[in-house]
Amino acid sequence: MGANASSYPHSCSPRVGGNSQAQQTFIGTSSYSQQGYGCESKLYSLDHGHEKPQDKKKRTSGLATLKKKFIKRRKSNRSADHAKQMRELLSGWDVRDVNALVEEYEGTSALKELSLQASVARPEARTLQKDMADLYEYKYCTDVDLIFQETCFPVHRAILAARCPFFKTLLSSSPEYGAEIIMDINTAGIDMPMFSALLHYLYTGEFGMEDSRFQNVDILVQLREEFGTPNSLDVDMRGLFDYMCYYDVVLSFSSDSELVEAFGGNQNCLDEELKAHKAIISARSPFFRNLLQRRIRTGEEITDRTLRTPTRIILDESIIPKKYAKVILHCMYTDMVDLAVLHCSPSVGSLSEVQALVAGKPNMTRAEEAMELYHIALFLEFNMLAQGCEDIIAESISLDTLIAILKWSSHPYGSKWVHRQALHFLCEEFSQVMTSDVFYELSKDHLLTAIQSDYLQASEQDILKYLIKWGEHQLMKRIADREPNLLSGTAHSVNKRGVKRRDLDIEELREILSSLLPFVRIEHILPINSEVLSDAMKRGLISTPPSDMLPTTEGGKSNAWLRQKNAGIYVRPRLFSPYVEEAKSVLDEMMVEQTDLVRLRMVRMSNVPDTLYMVNNAVPQCCHVISHQQISSNQSSPPSVVANEIPDLTTVFI
């Protein structure tokens, strides 16, 4: 192993926190805020630079602002229409029925909260601190031995030098590989367990053991004076990445020489080497750990040590593109996925970039870069990097990227976690999706998953309406695909002249929608006399709803909305926000009316005279009980009413 001064520089640049990069994704802690009936997940922490609010306003054109106002106004109007329909439905309901519906909504809302927590859950990725603890415990790729009280502690030169000024000075005097350094500590009371705890602290930022001596201020002051005070682990590891003190491995990339010559690239540029530390890459990635251990078993490591050169690892750029190498190393040292590193050196090309240039492909988006990097992370078994890429992809979900992310995450090599977030976005923004062109690009499977959800944010009438439109669009595509090639793309083709609705084959349209329409909750369509429902029934796309689901009583369709009054198979109403909020508002108004009625009744009751008081004053004198007088000892009978005195029968005795 290269252990000379060239491999292990005696001096390192000052430890600093490193330059703050824009658009950094910090992994490790994820917060997910509950969203009433909408969803706004915060799965990552992004630093988008320091941009003043007024600068953002300048970049927003007046036309875009006006468009947003119109869209917001349309959304408000649609919500008002939905609220009006729900109010009309509940107008003939009893307060107990409305309360039962609200309780059903509240129960569904509680289930949604649990569903949200389950959708964002994923296995915990190993952090830098945990991997550094394992590195100290299992001693991967150690290069120096510390001898303290006749006990050998194999350690890593680069880590101790980066973390502690004392060890930086001590190790610079013995640069050779595998050097044995006898420790002479002046601080009194330091035994072998305590020294091991100090080394554990330098690796992880924690002592790793409970010892009352660490609570002794005097001992801590002495240790600080002798060893110095290290920065936080994150700061020191960032400094180690920036300056690569005592690096002992270089990463090289194989490339296609024909492409290099064709585009005037030079071999030195395409085969640029990246410096790293065996200890770090073996601790963070089982792939690199197994690779380095295999070199030790085969004797290749001995050759490097004899020649005093760093270990060279050659990577296939078709598997691990060189442009991602620095992002990978940056994450290994800092637990942060920073895609801005990709664009720091635009002059440095890679095989994948050259191939994209040949194919005429546009530049990759941030989400596409994260998708490609995600596959590399899985190959390297580097879960922290994989989850960071998932966070970036989830943050990129929008109307423009929804279809691409759904398709990618649906594949076996995609991320199931990202797929859940994309489906969640689809359900929460379904009202917006179905009115855009994106809706017609949705696959049947994704559409089926969405309309099966109890939390879909759309009314049943809109769901039915746009499902039929989606089916008609799919049928037109079939017709266009079936037409002769001679007509395709001409003025007589389907794409040019269009297809009228009456020309569509109803049987084929019914076959396309056969797996989707059963999940439309027709019994919950509002208004009750929906034209969309009537038109679908006339066309034979759906059968007539059962008679008990039609408005036959004064209560309207209450039996289809309430679990207690449903005669058939009960279908839970969707947790559609305008319906829920309006139902709560109606219930509050009914409760206020009931409260006012109760208060009015109490006022009327308070005006009724006290009956006992009236009886007490109305009793005639003839009915008074004889006064208690001294009765002789031989009389034991109780007093009685005066004989021959009959009270007025109209007087009530209580």
From TrEMBL:
CDD domains: BACK_BTBD7 (cd18489), BTB1_POZ_BTBD7 (cd18283), BTB2_POZ_BTBD7 (cd18284). Residues 1-10 have a biased composition (Polar residues). It comes from Odocoileus virginianus. Transmembrane segments: none annotated. InterPro entries: BACK, BTB/POZ_dom, Btbd7, BTBD7_BACK, BTBD7_BTB_POZ_first, BTBD7_BTB_POZ_second, SKP1/BTB/POZ_sf. Pfam families: BACK (PF07707), BTB (PF00651). It comes from the Eukaryota. Residues 142-211, 247-341 form the BTB domain. This is BTB/POZ domain-containing protein 7 isoform X2. Gene3D superfamilies: 1.25.40.420, Potassium Channel Kv1.1, Chain A (3.30.710.10). PROSITE patterns: BTB. Residues 1-24 are annotated as: Disordered. SUPFAM superfamilies: POZ domain (SSF54695).
